[in-house]
Design brief:
This protein is α/β, with parallel strands linked by helices and 481 residues long. The chain is built from 18 helices and 19 strands. The chain binds 6-deoxy-beta-L-fructofuranose.
Length: 481
């Protein structure tokens, strides 16, 4: 049996998923799962890269322990975040997390170098305060010495690939999330980079998914007990997730549902006109140069945050500690509470910036209701109902915008990712959009990562063949409006 391994790391947890192909069906097996908890470092919320690296190694050892050593492996993570590397191959920056507040004022600063309409016309990337372009602008203000000392910029998956193999490779799909890649030439945009005053030398050649990074270093082989080919999947998790959507036809809207809900379609060409810019739709680079035309919607982050607050835990270690909670809420219990308050009518705009990284999500939701003259949720059920229904309303609004921007009528919604397990959200989505929802596969991102490896290994001839196999391999639930 030939195994391939996806290491899929999201903002709150990571997993090692082994995959193989048997009689044309794709089979997945979760080998290892770990938490992703940020740390406070040098005044910023940072990814704990050391802890993540140890978890990556631990999961590799777990493959060896069950005697299922993969022939190839690939890593995908959330986008936009990076580590700057010095000429000696060591990091010269922390891996600051994208919700950290360092980017305050960075958009305005970047705007002085390059007005947003020009940036959008060139890159097609939405305006989000956490885009790499703005993080680098913020870094330049706070730590110009780090940029001066940097010889390369590695996105998070590329940093781990470097630790695994000793090779530094930049990958195209994740690079587009920096807002520094030209949507038409599909390579780094020198004009944008110069206008923002960034050093061109830190951006290496762009490699496509399927490319080989290298084999494990001797040290890694010693630590995990085997050697393996490291490949590039679409290293941006959303790029991998969209690969794994079992769409029936060209009229399906995709949602990759996790910490974020990424709602959109795949296009052959970028859309960078004014209407698209004003609606803040993005054109992220996809597998085989397709464009993911989508909108970021706040997503399960809101539900995860409220649950953490109720349970008295934080997503950043050793900070913002709340008092020990009376009880621990499960997602299923929160969903049941929401269902019990189905007639609660207050709604929030889930894309309001107050929900990006609030001290308390619960307070932010209540505050929004106060400011908009709506009844303020008093119970857990009312709070959850408000968030659930607001998310579904956000989806419906985005589908309407998408239709207007592409001139197409959409007839179904495919949801992949962990959030596709949320039955109540699926029901509300079907009801609010009036469209049938097809939910699954839940491991969409890891599957997309594996599909790039399966194709590179010749298990499937091409993407069409791999996609055709998804529906016969996984259970897809249909929810009618
Ligand atoms: C989802 C995701 C999304 C980005 C955000 C930073 O995990 O990669 O596509 O916009 O994280």
């Amino acid at each position: 049996m030939k195994y391939h391994l996806a290491i899929d790391i999201g903002a709150s947890s990571g997993r090692h998923i082994l995959g193989h192909v048997e009689k044309g069906c794709m089979m997945l097996e979760e080998i290892y799962r770990f938490d992703n908890i940020q740390v406070r470092k040098n005044g910023h919320d940072c990814w704990n890269t050391e802890q993540l690296w140890q978890s990556i190694l631990e999961g590799l050892r777990a493959c060896k322990a069950v005697n299922k050593v993969p022939e190839t492996m690939g890593i995908d993570t959330w986008a936009v975040d990076f580590v700057l590397m010095g000429a000696d191959g060591r990091p010269v920056s922390d891996a600051v997390a994208y919700r950290d507040k360092r980017t305050k004022g960075a958009m305005e600063q970047a705007e002085r170098g390059l007005p947003f309409p020009e940036l959008y016309a060139r890159t097609g990337i939405q305006k989000q305060v956490f885009n790499t372009a703005y993080q680098l602008t913020a870094l330049q203000r706070e730590h110009p010495e780090q940029l001066a000392a940097a010889s390369r910029l590695l996105m998070i998956p590329e940093y781990f690939n470097y630790l695994l193999t000793g090779n530094m490779l930049n990958e195209y799909t994740n690079a587009t999330s920096t807002a520094l890649v030209n949507a038409y030439t599909r390579s780094w945009d020198d004009t944008v980079i110069a206008a923002l005053g960034l050093p061109r030398r830190i951006f290496g050649p762009l490699n496509l998914p399927g490319a080989r990074v290298g084999r494990f270093t001797g040290e890694v082989q010693g630590a995990v007990g085997f050697d393996c080919d490291v490949l590039l999947p679409a290293t941006h998790d959303t790029g991998s997730a969209f690969l794994a959507v079992p769409a029936r036809d060209e009229n399906a809207v995709y949602i990759s549902s996790g910490t974020w809900s990424l709602l959109g379609v795949e296009n052959e060409a970028p859309i960078t006109g004014e209407a698209s810019m004003l609606a803040n739709f993005t054109n992220e680079g996809g597998y085989r140069y397709r464009y993911r035309y989508l909108k970021n919607i706040m997503g399960l982050w809101m539900i995860q945050s409220i649950r953490r607050e109720l349970n008295g835990v934080s997503y950043v270690e050793d900070s913002k500690k709340t008092a020990a909670a009376q009880r621990q809420w499960s997602y299923a219990e929160l969903e049941a509470e929401a269902r019990g308050c189905a007639d609660f009518t207050s709604r929030v705009d889930v894309n309001d910036s107050s929900f990006l990284a609030p001290e308390s999500m619960t307070d932010a939701v209540k505050q929004f209701c106060v400011q908009t003259g709506q009844s303020v949720p008093q119970t857990v059920g009312e709070l959850m109902q408000c968030v659930y229904a607001s998310l579904a309303a956000g989806y419906a609004g985005a589908v309407r915008e998408l239709s207007a921007l592409t001139g197409k009528v959409y007839t179904s919604i495919n949801i992949v990712g962990g959030g596709s397990k949320d039955g109540y959200l699926n029901e509300l989505t079907a009801r609010t959009t009036g469209l049938p929802v097809f939910a699954g596969p839940t491991e969409g991102t890891a599957l997309g990562n594996l599909m790039a490896q399966f194709i590179a290994a010749g298990e499937f001839d091409d993407l069409e063949a791999a996609r055709a196999a998804i529906r016969q391999s996984f259970d897809i639930k249909e929810v009618t409006p």
